[in-house]
Amino acid sequence: MLDGTEILTSAQMRALESRAMASGTVTGLQLMERAGSAVAGQIRLRWPVPGRVTVLCGPGNNGGDGYVIARLLHEAGWRVRVLGLPAPPGPDAAQMKDRWQRIGPILPLTRAELQQGGGPHLHVDAIFGTGLTRPPTGEIAQLLRHLAGFGGDLVAVDCPSGLCMDSGAMLGQSREDAQYLLRAGLTVAFDSPKPGHLLGLGPECCGRLVIADIGLHDWRVTGADDPPAAPRPLTEAIWPEFDIPDSRRPALSAQKQAQWLSRRGSGRGHKFSHGHALVIARGIGHGGAARLAARAALRIGAGLVTICPTGSALIEHSAPPDALMRKQVNDAEDLAKMLADRRITSVCLGPGCGIDRASDLLPVLLASARAAVLDADALTALAMDDTPFRGLHGNIVLTPHLGEFARLFPDLARRLTETPDSGPAYSKLDAARDAAARSKAVVLLKGPDSVIAAPDGHAAIHSAFDIPWLATAGAGDVLAGIITGLLARGLPALDAASLGTRVHAKAARLFGPGLIADDLPDLIPQVLRDISG
Ligand SMILES: NC(=O)C1=CN([C@@H]2O[C@H](COP(=O)(O)OP(=O)(O)OC[C@H]3O[C@@H](n4cnc5c(N)ncnc54)[C@H](OP(=O)(O)O)[C@@H]3O)[C@@H](O)[C@H]2O)[C@H](O)CC1
Ligand SMILES: [K+]
């Protein structure tokens, strides 16, 4: 049994459903009834007074869910209209379709019919779910374009139709011309989030995301021969709008992260037992970014933090925090001398460091095999190198935003911008994994949908679409410092990058709009109290 919240791909979801059905403990029909019941339940929760609803049913099991929803809402007093397709779907959906037809008609699934709907009422999109493999075309594409304007009164079953659930791309649409971008007010998905709910256009299209438990958890067993326990009672796990689980198969689950954070060392804790981080700064007048990173490294709990400007700039770093130590590093030789001290356990290179200085210091840093964060100017310096990934290793975290990523991995970035004409489309998750495998380092591909990937393929997704104010100057420097501090304390690179991203976002949520990067480090203690519970 995997603890923590797992994000399953469409194929993994199908395999999970098949394992459950093959066990003979549950049938596809029961799963469909549970899925439809979960959606109908969420609708009744949000719109307690029965009204008018149009349910749009597609050709497969997503449509089957729609027939269940129609029947249950009818039984709850809703005035239900169903639009569907004449072709018989698979056996489970066919049975649900028949059960609806004993209650009411199925009108043609066309734009013209949709427009007959009359006044304000709810629409339920049960056209495509995890089975979408190619861009919708013809009549269905027309209908989806018309549906795109429905917004808040649109409930999506499993996902808004047209969305690739593995990438968050709209099949057949580039990001720019997603003219029929369905924006649901509510999406009810089943068992676990899929990457497409969290990446790319997903969060914008899904609206409020609710993950309904349809009793499959116990088949997500690790060993093939583990006897599946009886399905848990059906409960809806309602994810707050923003705090969608940020990890997939975490080496450290959320509660283990909390335990680790609250760890007081071996009881004989002293400053060195929580590591010593170096933050490389630059010359006069360029100290701000490195100071933000250094302050953050202190606040996240590194035992010692030393900021290392050039000798001429030392005077600039005499202001508080007094806990911050200062040591000049003029060149690679100076850094090599410092790194001879094995008690130095992590280095932050990049924020406010200068590209030439980063290029000069990188070889020594990489040769020292120390844990490190390479951000900003260090990433630019790497990209300018003719063998950019030589010497990188698994305890290095690269923290590019999309622009820096495109300079380091131009071919991967190009694939991300292509218009996907078949699913599963290439995703930020794929790109981060490919980059990590190529560079042999952990890659944190930043954005409102951040993806953290290790060279072995383990990955985490953090969704922060709800905090646009985090996109403020210096926020990346603080994130680099947080991760550096966690590395200094001995957290492995994937966990340091995942947990660091989570702490960084939570601090931003705590503060709210009007945030500037300087606010972030001093919010970390509150976040640590919240996470440690
Ligand atoms: N499996 C289960 O027990 C449960 C599934 N649930 C729901 O089922 C869907 C997944 O259902 P599935 O039938 O696999 O696929 P969809 O309903 O999403 O798609 C229907 C079929 O549509 C065809 N397709 C794909 N792309 C297009 C397109 N662009 N235009 C037209 N048709 C398209 C495709 O068949 P093809 O053979 O034509 O490729 C699909 O099969 C899941 O999302 C859940 O909602 C239950 O909820 C839980 C149990
Ligand atoms: K759907």
UniProtKB/TrEMBL annotation:
Belongs to the NnrE/AIBP family. Gene3D superfamilies: 3.40.1190.20, YjeF N-terminal domain. It comes from the Bacteria. Bifunctional enzyme that catalyzes the epimerization of the S- and R-forms of NAD(P)HX and the dehydration of the S-form of NAD(P)HX at the expense of ADP, which is converted to AMP. This allows the repair of both epimers of NAD(P)HX, a damaged form of NAD(P)H that is a result of enzymatic or heat-dependent hydration. Catalyzes the epimerization of the S- and R-forms of NAD(P)HX, a damaged form of NAD(P)H that is a result of enzymatic or heat-dependent hydration. This is a prerequisite for the S-specific NAD(P)H-hydrate dehydratase to allow the repair of both epimers of NAD(P)HX. Binds 1 potassium ion per subunit. It catalyses: (6R)-NADPHX = (6S)-NADPHX; (6S)-NADPHX + ADP = AMP + phosphate + NADPH + H(+); (6R)-NADHX = (6S)-NADHX; (6S)-NADHX + ADP = AMP + phosphate + NADH + H(+). Residues 254-531 form the YjeF C-terminal domain. This is Bifunctional NAD(P)H-hydrate repair enzyme. AMP binds at K446, G447, P448, D449, S450, G476. Its cofactor is Mg(2+); K(+). Pfam families: Carb_kinase, YjeF_N. (6S)-NADPHX binds at residues 61-65, 129-135, 158, 289, 352, 401, 477. Keywords: ATP-binding, Isomerase, Lyase, Metal-binding, Multifunctional enzyme, NAD, NADP, Nucleotide-binding, Potassium. Homotetramer. Its EC number is 4.2.1.136, 5.1.99.6. It comes from Paracoccus fistulariae. Residues 13-222 form the YjeF N-terminal domain. The keyword Phosphoprotein does not apply. K(+) binds at N62, D125, S161.
